[in-house]
Amino acid sequence: MSLEKRLKFWIEEIDAYAGLRPPLFTNRLLNDPNLDEAIKIIGGKEKVDWSGLRKGLEDMRKAYQRFSGFRLIIILMFLVIIIGVISTILIFTNFSQIETEFSLIGALPLLLLVIIIVFGDWLVYKRNMYITVKTFRQTALGARKIAQILINRLVDIAECPHRLKLYYLKYENTRQVGTRLAFNPIMTKKYLMELRSPQK
Predict the structure, then answer these.
(1) What is the chain's percent helix, strand, coil content, to nearest 5?
(2) Between β-strands 174-183 and 187-195, what pairing exists: parallel, antiparallel or unpaired?
(3) Separation CA 39–CA 182 (nearest Å)
């Protein structure tokens, strides 16, 4: 992976913490050893306490995972899998005598997926925002600082304009050009931001 692509990945992942919507099903960012070295080099002049911030980011993830909304999403996803398996078994065993019941069973996973995708943002993130802002405000500010450092670095080395999907709108050297939906698998709204040269 090129440095530009790696920087884009790091920026979008760290921005999720800056926007208080950390990824809860994956942890690729905090497990990336290359990021530790990059922060030391790129953020050296900024005196960034990456080790302390990293612990705060992990604590933020764990806090969301303890909320009842996240646990409900996990239960719903488990039900989708179980009902999907049952539906598949019914298809291959030709239970024609329970055709009505089968159609209802087959529709249930789709209904649960809609609930997860459409209402997941509110269940997991929005309804707990007051608590997380109060608890992790400094962590989010630290994540924004790191994201800004990486954005500045990407602007410096980019050979062509880049666009990033971000939660936070007010980074320097960026401008909003639209909005996008993101899935992780919860559907959330992000801002499509274009990087621009500081001289512009």
Answers:
(1) 65, 10, 20
(2) antiparallel
(3) 26
The alpha-helical segments, DSSP class H, found in 121-164 are 129-157
What own/partner pairs with CB < 8 Å and gap ≥ 24 does 27-36 have? 27/61, 29/57, 30/54, 30/57, 30/58, 34/6, 35/10
Calculate the alpha carbon distances from 48 to 38, 90, 142, 144 in Å. Answer: 12, 57, 8, 12
Which DSSP helix (H) or strand (E) runs through 179?
Answer: strand 174-183
What's CA 109's distance to the chain center, in Å? 23
Letter string b/e over residues 38-60, b meaning 16 or more CB atoms within 10 A of that residue's CB: bbeebbeeeebebeebbebbeeb
Q: What angle do CA 21, 45, 38 make, to 5 degrees?
A: 55
Maximum Cα–Cα distance across the chain: 72
- Flag the least confident range among 23-27, 61-65, 71-75, 121-125: 23-27
Return left, alpha or beta for 47; rule: phi > 0 is left, psi -120 to 50 is alpha, else beta.
left
The model's pTM is 0.84
pLDDT of residue 79: 87
Least confident of 58-62, 113-117, 170-174: 113-117
pLDDT, mean of residues 69-78: 90
Looking up tokens 């990293």, which residue turns up? 54
Which token pair is 139?
């962590």
What are the E-state strand segments in the chain?
A: 163-166, 174-183, 187-195
